[in-house]
Amino acid sequence: MIEASGKNSFQDDKTTTEEIMSRLIRKSRETESAALSVKKFFQQVIHYILCLYILLILGVLPFYQEEGYSHIGTDKSTFFNQVSVMAGRLLFPLLLCYLAASLIECLQRGRAKKNETEQEGEGLWKGLKKSLSLTDGFALLYGIVLLVSYACSRYRDTALWGEDWWFMGLYPQLALLCIYFFLSRLWNPRKELFFLVFPVSGVVFLLGFLNRFGIYPLDMQVKNVQFISTIGNINWYCGYLVSVFFGGVFLLWQQAAQKPWQRALFGAYVAAGFATLATQGSSSGIVSLAAVVLVLLWLSAPKGERMQQLWLILLLFSAVCLIIFCIRRIFPESMTYSDTVSELLTGSPLPIVMTAVSALAYLGIVWIRKKKDYPERLAVRLTRGMCIGILLLAAVIGALICVNTLYPGCIGPLSQISAFTFSPAWGSNRGATWKAGLMCFLEQDFLHRLIGVGPDCMAAYLYGNGSEELLSLVRERFGEARLTNAHNEWLTVLVNTGVTGATAYVGMIVSAIVRYIRQRDRNYITAAAGFCLLAYTVNNMFSFQQAMNVSTMFVIFGIGEAYQRRKENVS
Q1: Which terminus of the chain is less hemmed in, N or C, by CB atoms within 10 Å?
Q2: Domain named O-antigen ligase-related: which ranges (predicted)?
Q3: For 480, what's the count of Cα atoms within 13 Å in the CB-facing half-sphere?
């Protein structure tokens, strides 16, 4: 009897222990569920704020202006900064709440896992490290360098917000990085918000094209040929154009649109973009086009369908140039502004040759594909050999420019062509701006070569502490105009944030371009973002950051990373 009673007591103790463990696990799950619900609530609120931010930057900023062209660049910078500050005031408290809920949920999940399996969970820190990409690492490094550069700058008043009327200082730069991380982590991707950029920019392109023929549907003060559409200066306009347009070119090449009416709309959008690209007046946009076409040619070689689509796009570009050529022949004085490149593309017989060649190539590939005899290996060898040849030719031209500059006349008849002599006037005064930027960098001590003179402080150094030789160069070429950047984004970043900042910034952008374009067959939105970044970067080798183009680029950058982080494919 005593023996039986002892046995029952042991069983009762065991049952009680199991009940306690069960209650603990159930309570842990309930707590975890509550924490998860709170986390999801804050994430949803953050998501809606980010949606509004995207709408304001991609949908409103391109049209925002207060008094026409009189100070449109400052208007857009002020709008971007105000919207970013407002978003930051809303987002950061919500982010702290979200992180607190995430930490509680993670700890509870770890305890539950330990109770159930006696194994520790992965942990918040390990999970965080696992979620960081190479691009994220460079972005974080760039943010740290910005803070250090500001702390060590002799021009902190300027460095905080940036040069007057320009505003690309510490706060705007940090805002760009924050919006990248917010969008990539806490925004639930919505295709319609990404595709918003195309109708908006399509209207901007149409206005820009009409402006080049003296037609101004919108009443803009201070009208002249140096300002275009609702963006402003030609360089600003071209910077915005390439930051969005080549995403549409990629989508047309990739045939992301499934329905006929969608393909027709994309075709019309790309045609409008080509029309304004050929007439807007900034040659760097055509260089961006060449870079994108070169990449698409490389990627198209293995598949006849892709090669056919590429030649269709080139035929569309050639046909648009031919139509403009005909308009100019019928109405000789209709176009109010042109430069060497636009004159070549729309004022000479070149578009006739371009259209004939692209039409023959397109029809030839259609015929080959109908016979199901596309020579994949031969196409790959020819096209990639051509791409490598073009890159080598560009390198040879660069070498000839260097040699002829150092030893004038040594390359024979080519020495007579001004483009083969690097001088202050080279490339619409890019020679002077690049030399000024390089001199600003070289005049720094070791510390400031590492971390720069401060965010957006190139002009503060140049006019405050620059050498007499540097000041003479700038005043000789630009007079009383204030040179705020080197008209080369990477060189300007080098001056402002030093070698470490430039390395981080270049690493961030280049790694994103490579990662995104690799997604072309799995995630067309990420790949489209990659082509936007590629075109922006190529253009800004001859241009600069300003609120319109860099804000658009970083929003698209964040959208691309958000889709990159999705597990499922986007098709």
Answers
A1: N
A2: 344-505
A3: 0
